[in-house]
Structure formats: C-alpha cells, structure tokens
Sequence to fold (275 residues):
Amino acid sequence: MTGKTSKAAKTAVPKEEKGSKRAAKKAAKEKPIILVCNDDGIRSGGIKALEAALARLGEVYVVAPDREQSAASHSLTLHRPLRVEKVGPREYAIDGTPTDCVTLAVNGILPRRPSIVVSGINMGGNLGEDVSYSGTVSAAMEGTLLGIPSIAVSLVAKENFDFKAAARFAVRLARLVLKKGLPADTLLNVNVPDTERIKGARITRQGKRVFGDVVIEKVDPRGKKYYWIGGDMLRWEGGEDTDFAAVTKGYISITPIHLDMTNYSAISELQYWEF
Fold:
C-alpha cells in the first residue's frame, strides 16, 4: 500500500453532507410561504386585497376566521373542536379566532413553515391600546410567538374602504422583512391613513386614546336594562412620535410591538415595597 491518497478519496463527500446540501439548494429554489390572516373574516375585502398583492413575493396561503372576529384579542379556542373548510386554492376558513387560524396553519395546514405572517388588511385602525383587543394584531402576535416574522396591517378608515395603498405598502414591508428579518420577539403594527396623498412612513410608539362614556346603558321595550360597550374617542395623547400623530398627519405608522410586557422601570421601585 502506498502513502498516496487516491483522487476519489480526496473528493469523497459524506452522504449526510450531500443530503444537507441538496436540501439547502431545494429550499433556496422554493418560493417563500406567506401566511395571511385577519379578524374581519375570510370574505373581507381587506384580506382579498392583501392576498392578491402578496402573490408576487411568494406562495400565499390564506387561513382566516369564517366570520368576523373583531376584538377577539389573543384568545385561543380550547373548549370545543375546530372545523376547517377549504374554500379555494390555498384558502381555508376556520370556525375560530385569528389566533386559532395561525396556530392551525403553522402546525397542520401548511405544507411547510411560513417565512412570514401578514395579518390584515383590517377595516379600521389599530392604534394605541387597540393592540390589546385587536384580533388582527393578535394573529401577528401568535406568529411572533411561534418564531415567525409577523406584521399586522390596518387601514384607518370608517367607510368606503380603499385598500390599494395599504396593500402596496404591505408588499414593500413584507419584502424588507423577508430580506432582513425582525428583532427577536417583535412584530410590526402598521396603520395606513385613509388619504390619497400618503407622505411617507414613520417608526412610532403607541399613543393613548381618551374616551367619553365607555358603557352606554339603555332600556328595551320590556323595561329591562341592556348595555353597549363602546364610546367616542374625545382625543389622543402621547406626543408627536406616536402612531396617532403620524396617521393624523398623513404618514403610515409602523410601531414595533414587543412580546415582553414587563415594566422594567417599575422593578426597582417595587423592590422597596414590603410584601
């Protein structure tokens, strides 16, 4: 036996390494899967506009509630089984919440893990503390919890919804997120003003609404009281760097939302309390 190494031996590559390289090449060739959800329901004009616009970036799957689930927040259905109905090519209606939809899509419906979750386009703004109640934002929150870059898109309008500008910006933003990713445990809450002349986009923080009467008491024809939860916003507070200020001035608001809601500045103060 000589001390020379054959050419074949020098170039031999372990089977495991070959397999991983093939898998990497295949993944690079595959289009990214884009999961689209909302809280207005699968028949909403906003989700249809978003689905059509995002098709240029990848393979779009729509998994959304079969009916309106506004203000569903981050609720998860645990007390009953969920039904899934395929309503079109890569379109699925769920009889559950937006959070249910994202969970089922990622863990059962989609052929592989999505590269991004885009929730919306919501019919109405999700500004300030709206993020605590919004099903649209909560769908993006669930995607973030699952480790998937996620954004929520809302159109700040009350009627005559024209989703074209919001859909165009969603494509621009989704393209950037697919390329750059997002900070850990962070989603983007996007609010698009209802104006033909959008001045640009601003990175913002949450403002705060000030409401009038939040609970409205009335009496039915039988003399029994009933209540409506809701009220008119009197004003907003928080300053010029808030989501409210940006949208009011004709800018798209992009607010990074972090999953960790700990008030770190309060920790040092509470340390002195005697429990």
About this structure: The chain has a mean pLDDT of 88.
